[in-house]
Specification:
mainly alpha, 9 helices
Length: 253
């Protein structure tokens, strides 16, 4: 068979691969949160999940969407941010309902109190929504005013992906302090590493803005550093933990 005769088959296959990669990029980021969501619903216990994960990802993805208005990038990356925002809001709603239902005689806190001591520890899901809408409105207005500045747009893009890239650093630092990875899911870290590696390769191959590639590589390095901690601390006696519980993860659990 002549090489040209395979074109009718290769072209659709390449298209299917492209669609598959785009789909994995859009939905792959939320997959680690599905079992966590189901576990919280089943146990009615949200202590193992840090809602600051939601805060970081909401900020990062809102900034990424605003960056898109100044410099258009791949549509799957835009849809990934939208899906991630929806997912984090769902996680926040569940965690807030579970936490409030387990609290007894605790004073209710709200976003309107403007008390920094209780920032992101409010009693109603609507308070988190108000905070997110306020942040979106303020940053959106600033972006509108400075949209013609290439320096501002590029800085905005860097802040978006750098914020997300730093998501694993608290876990890395916590492991270092405790000289232990106890309570951390190794399988989840492996999922981070494989997902972040795929994402970074996708950025490079699709010529995404350079901020995406640089911060994607940074995420992979942080993931590898955490895996190295798992290996190192498993070969040494673990330091006694001074507190009673570890959050399962500050990144994806």
């Amino acid at each position: 068979m002549e090489p040209g005769g395979l074109e009718w088959l290769l072209v659709p296959m390449q298209q299917l691969v492209s669609w598959g990669a785009a789909g994995a990029m859009v939905f792959g980021g939320v997959v680690p949160y599905i079992p966590q969501y189901r576990d919280i619903r089943r146990t009615q216990n949200a202590e193992g999940f840090s809602t600051y994960v939601c805060l970081v990802l909401l900020v990062a993805n809102i900034l990424r969407i605003l960056f898109w208005f100044g410099r258009h990038f791949e549509s799957p990356l835009l849809w990934q941010s939208i899906i991630m925002i929806i997912t984090m809001l769902l996680m926040l709603k569940l965690c807030t309902e579970v936490r409030v239902s387990n609290e007894l005689n605790v004073k209710r806190r709200s976003f309107a109190d403007f008390d920094l001591n209780y920032f992101w520890h409010w009693s109603k899901f609507t308070d988190y929504v108000q905070c997110v809408l306020t942040f979106t409105g303020v940053t959106g207005y600033i972006t509108y005013l400075w949209l013609d500045s290439s320096l501002f747009v590029e800085t905005l893009g860097f802040l978006a992906v750098f914020t997300e890239a730093m998501l694993g650093v608290p876990q890395l630092y916590r492991n270092y302090q405790n000289r232990s990875t106890e309570g951390m899911s190794i399988k989840m870290v492996l999922m981070w590493t494989s997902g972040d590696t795929f994402k970074t390769v996708y950025f490079i191959l699709n010529q995404a803005p350079f901020q995406f590639s640089i911060c994607g590589l940074l995420q992979v390095f942080v993931d590898i550093a955490i895996l190295l901690q798992v290996y190192l601390y498993s070969h040494y006696p673990q330091k006694p933990v001074s507190h009673t519980a570890h959050p399962a993860s500050t990144k994806a659990l």
